[in-house]
Write a structure and sequence with these properties.
The complex is a heterodimer of chains A (112) and B (117). Chain A has 112 residues and is mainly β. Chain A has strands at 4-7, 10-13, 19-25, 38-43, 50-54, 58-59, 67-72, 75-80, 89-95, 102-103, 107-111. Chain B has no helices and 11 strands. Chain B has strands spanning 3-6, 10-12, 18-25, 33-40, 44-51, 58-60, 68-73, 78-83, 92-99, 104-107, 111-115. In chain B, the strands form 2 sheets. In chain B, strands 2, 4, 5, 6, 9, 10 and 11 form a 7-stranded mixed beta sheet that branches. Classes of the chains: A mainly beta (112), B mainly beta (117). Chain A binds chain B through residues 35, 37, 39, 47-51, 54, 60, 92, 94, 96, 99-106, and chain B through 35, 37, 44-45, 47, 50, 59, 61, 95, 97, 101-110.
C-alpha cells in the first residue's frame, strides 16, 4: 500500500495569513495515463470530506482561488494564500493511483 | 446538484451485520462508481472498496476478509454496503463517495456504526 504522510499535524493561523501543508507518498503518484492522482480534501467540523483539489493542482468546482495545490511525483503541497475563518477544519491528502486508496493522517487548521 | 444521502446511525452487537444505503441524485447513476470509506477514531480513513454502478463489478480491500458485500440498485440509484461479523474495531463513520475511477468528488454525510456488547 502507498503510505501518505502529512506535515504538520496542526496549524494555528492568523486570519489573512498564509498556510502550507505538505504531503509525501512512498511511491510516485504519476499514472501511466500521464495524470498524477493526488487529491486534497477538507473535513469541516461535523461534516463529511469536501473535495478541494484533484490531480495535484486542479481546483474543484466552487473552490476559492486562495487554495493552490502543487507538486509532483511523491511530494505535494497545499497552500492557502490568506486563511479565512471558514477554512477551519482538518485537511487530508489522498492518492488514487493505486488500490487501495490511501489517505494522509490529516492536518488540523484552526484560527488564532 | 449531486447528492449522496446515507441511511441513519446503527448500533450493533459483535457478530451482527450492518447494511448501509447510499441514495444518489443529481446525476446519471450508472456513469460513476461508488467508493466506500470508513473513518475510525484514532486511525483515520480506510478505503473499503469500490463498485461499478453500471455492471456491479467490485474491488474490495483485503482487510475485510470476505466480510464485505457491496451492491447497487440502478432502479433506485442507490448503492448498498453490508459488513458482517462485526467487531468492536468496526466502530466508526462509514461514507460513500462518487467515484468514476479518475475523480472521487462528492461524499455522503456519513453513517455512524457503533459495535458494542
Amino acid at each position: 500500500d502507498i503510505l501518505m504522510t502529512q506535515t504538520p499535524l496542526s496549524l494555528s493561523v492568523t486570519p489573512g495569513q498564509p498556510a502550507s501543508i505538505s504531503c509525501r507518498s512512498t511511491q510516485s503518484l504519476l499514472h501511466s495515463d500521464g495524470k498524477t492522482y493526488l487529491y486534497w480534501y477538507v473535513q469541516k467540523p461535523g461534516q463529511s470530506p469536501q473535495l478541494l483539489i484533484y490531480e495535484v493542482s486542479t481546483r474543484f468546482s466552487g473552490v476559492p482561488d486562495r487554495f493552490t495545490g502543487s507538486g509532483s511525483g511523491t511530494d505535494f503541497t497545499l497552500k492557502i494564500s490568506r486563511v479565512e475563518a471558514e477554512d477551519v477544519g482538518v485537511y487530508y491528502c489522498m492518492q488514487s493511483v493505486q488500490l487501495p486508496l490511501t489517505f494522509g493522517g490529516g492536518t488540523r487548521v484552526d484560527i488564532k | 446538484q449531486v447528492q449522496l444521502v446515507q441511511s441513519g446511525p446503527e448500533v450493533k452487537k459483535p457478530g451482527a451485520s450492518v447494511s448501509i444505503s447510499c441514495k444518489t441524485s443529481g446525476y446519471t447513476f450508472i456513469t460513476h462508481g461508488i467508493t466506500w470509506v470508513r473513518q475510525v477514531p484514532g486511525q483515520g480513513f480506510e478505503w473499503m472498496g469500490w463498485i461499478n454502478a453500471k455492471n456491479g463489478h467490485t474491488n474490495d480491500a483485503l482487510n475485510f476478509e470476505g466480510r464485505l458485500t457491496m451492491t447497487i440498485d440502478t432502479s433506485r440509484s442507490t448503492a448498498y454496503m453490508e459488513l458482517r461479523s462485526l467487531k468492536p474495531d468496526d466502530t466508526g463513520i462509514y461514507y460513500c463517495a462518487r467515484d468514476n475511477m479518475e475523480l472521487v468528488d462528492y461524499w455522503g454525510q456519513g453513517t455512524l456504526v457503533t459495535v458494542s456488547p
